## 1
Amino acid sequence: MMTAEQRQMVEAAVAAAEARTRGEIYCVAAAASSDYREVVLAWAAGVALLAPALLLLGGVEVSAPDVLDGWTAAQAGGLAESAVRAALVGAILLQGVLFGLTAIVVSIPPVRRLLTPAGLKRHRVRERATEQFRSRNLHATRERTGVLIYVSLEERLAEIVADEGIASRVEPAVWAQAMAALTDGLRRGDPGSGFAEAVGLCGDVLAAHFPPRDDNPDELPNALVELPRS
């Protein structure tokens, strides 16, 4: 997902930033934060529900013969029942076809990305970042000063999660500049530079509140972690 040069750039930026602080910076790049399968199902079901309306727009009508034209009530009722049944079967078949075709089209990654609501993408990225923060033990640093920088490449979104030691001293808006650097790098197709710039900015924040001491262990790896598509 990232080139060797980009990985080295990020790791060097982390080492340089952590030399100025006793805080810890951890970087994760994910291919995607979700497969968004529910988006495929939602669009397929929504389009399938249009089948009756499409039949009506196509001029399909269900009618029964007039009993005054020589038909008995029983004959007219039976014919009407057959016509309704045929219309229902046609609608169900059309719904099945529309569901299948829509599911195939929306399953194409670029189409699925386009049709996934922005709010859902943001929620999944934040959720995955929080999961990574916990699973990578960023909450277990000595002074609770771990900062996770998380990038989701498919969504072109990023998230910064700070542990309570730094979050209690820093307003969330302080991370906005680093977030902007990350997302700008993603838009340019250069996530490595975006990561490196964001790491430096996070290092500035950590250095201001947690400057280095003689006892300044490196508690977490500096390597960039990459999460392939599951």
## 2
Amino acid sequence: MTEAGRSTMRGVVIAAGAGVTLASALTWRSENWPIYAVFVLLSFLVHLPAVEVLPHVPLPVAELVTNIAFLYIGGPAIIVLRFIPPIVFASIPGQFRLRWRVRLFGHMDGIADDSTAAVAADWSAWTLGLGARSAVVWALLPAGNAVDHPGVMLLGEVVGYAVAGLLVLLPIYSFRPFLREARQGTPLYMVVEDMGLIVLLTVTPFVFLVVYGYRTHGLLGASIWSLAALGLHFVLRRLNDRRLRVEEQNRHLEDLQRELAHSERLSAIGKMSSVVSHQILQQLGVIGLYADLIGHADESGASAERLERARANARAIEQALDSVNGVLRDLLVFSKDQRLNVYEHALSTVVDEAIESCRPAAAERTVALRTDVPADLRLSLDKLKIRQALANLVRNAIEASPTTGEVAVRATAEDGWVEVAVADRGPGIAAGERDAVFAPFFTTKEQGTGLGLAIAREFVRAHGGDLRLADTPGPGATFVVRLPCGGAASPSRGSHGS
């Protein structure tokens, strides 16, 4: 909506509210002056306290109760009288005025509009809700006496909240408390749900109690029940303070859990530093050995033969350096705080990139790589982390496969989950090692760091999924990555191999 359209709509609502207020002033009855005087006095007492009845939705519960209940007791003139306390408080300098401005403009962290027009629109919406209640009473009870007709009051409440709730849908207010979760449902549904909760827990039950007090004990009974609404205010405030403390404790616990997980990773690295140091020193020894062979190469023999020996020694040094880099890279990845950068990606693309990074290792062992992944299956994930997790699994499968073997990567989607299986035809995993293979630094390979599967499982679990070793008949091992799928459609399947 354009700003001009918003201003026009806001002007219409303010004009309608002003009209209802003027009409209520014309209903003044001199014989009701005790009711009006008691209402104004009570309004000063209950006006300022506001409580957060819903997260980020503070409401002056006691004031709402008094306004609505005395509307049924004293008639529409209450609508204009309810403006007296805010006008007086707004004219007082110092702390009272500050609290009033905070109450008026500090409701929400949503639409940050504290203009006079926006605030007037807020008050007009509430005024129109009160006017709708009065219209119901005067339409069904020409005498205007609703105290002895609870059914009419109930209908008036329904109509009043419906009008106020529908007006909240208009994008013209300084705050829109009932639309804070609109992404999770339609705006109208959220309005009905939130207003229903507020009516059930706070306002309407006390409105009927105030009216009942007036019927049984006159203005004294109505006053007592209006002030009793402050008790509800303090109960709700206590519950809200407790909720805030629990939320803060939960945030603190989450921070502690992240720190603990990070510390556990670092602790695991510290405990296994001797193993890693041994691997690095071993490779450095290899590098030194071949470098010495190059430096003291036998000058006898043909030039071509000496050059070939030098090249072989250089390749051995490169392999040793690659091994050292792999150890350091795994340590760095394992020790990082695993924060996700999530976007929607085609799973087939992620799998293909993981396969491509492992293709040189597969070619060296003449292992065939085959994939069977839904072509149109898309997931919200951190592409780099899932790609690395799959690459770790494929690389392990290649190393475990016999020469001229095959590694198959297959993905399926079912019941809101996606499973990616990486299968090889190697010797498999011994029964006593099935639970230990995911432990950091556990390895059965001479040159392995034992971090590949640990990193893969951690990346997958960070996405809300899991990595497990499947029970499959026959030789080989099958590792299954299970990831949550946001309602993926039935995919068309496509496969390719190499």
